[in-house]
């Protein structure tokens, strides 16, 4: 196994977990959007903003307690503030596309609204993935260092080079 592959495997797992939470969040978002749109007389973009806010709350719980549960938990207030800030930018991206389609082009049928809501979610998701992993749910430096050290040991084992034993200090010494 090459040294960089463990990092790639971690990224693939992270993307998969992000996608699972995000996929469930999309269902929540579209479900609430259609429910609000059909039960109330709210305009399409207002119904969408309500649905996006509900999905943001749902996603925070999923990201914090499943996708990024192993990430730094210090500074929860800062984490939540950054999450809400970047989520708000995502909300503007998502609903800005829906607004442009609805009021700029007059595409306001239920099918058209759902298509542009979905497209907006997709574009905003790219931004959210980048911002959450870069700024909100930061990796603990020690965990990456341990993973890199393990990768070096695996590489040494694969090439047949003798490994140096590292003595760990313990209280029993």
Overview of the molecule:
- The chain is mainly alpha-helical and 173 residues long.
- Helix content is 79%, strand content 0%.
- It contains five helices and no strands.
- The chain has helices at residues 3-39, 44-67, 76-104, 110-136, 141-159.
- 24% of the residues are buried.
- The mean pLDDT is 85.
Radius of gyration: 22 Å
Number of strand segments:
0
Beta percentage is under 5%
Low-pLDDT stretches are none
**N-to-C SSE string, H for helix and E for strand:** HHHHH
Oligomer kind: single chain
Query: What structural category do the secondary elements indicate?
Result: mainly alpha
User: What distance separates the N and C termini?
Assistant: 35 Å
Main sheet summary? none
| Mean model confidence by pLDDT | 85
The amount of helix comes to: over 70%
Shape: elongated
Q: Please, how many helices?
A: 5
């Amino acid at each position: 196994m090459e040294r960089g592959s463990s990092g790639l495997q971690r990224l693939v797992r992270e993307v998969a977990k992000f996608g699972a939470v995000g996929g469930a969040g999309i269902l929540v978002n579209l479900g609430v959007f259609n429910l609000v749109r059909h039960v109330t007389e709210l305009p399409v973009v207002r119904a969408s903003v309500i649905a996006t806010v509900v999905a943001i709350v749902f996603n925070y719980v999923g990201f914090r307690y499943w996708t990024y549960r192993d990430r730094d938990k210090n500074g929860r207030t800062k984490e939540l503030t950054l999450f809400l800030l970047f989520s708000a930018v995502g909300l503007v991206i998502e609903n800005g596309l829906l607004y442009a389609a609805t009021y700029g082009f007059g595409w306001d049928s239920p099918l058209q609204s759902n298509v542009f809501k979905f497209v907006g979610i997709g574009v905003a998701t790219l931004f959210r993935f980048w911002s959450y992993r870069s700024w909100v749910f930061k990796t603990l430096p020690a965990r990456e260092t341990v993973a890199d050290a393990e990768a070096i040991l695996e590489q040494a084992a694969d090439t047949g080079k003798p490994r140096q034993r590292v003595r760990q200090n313990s209280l029993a010494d």
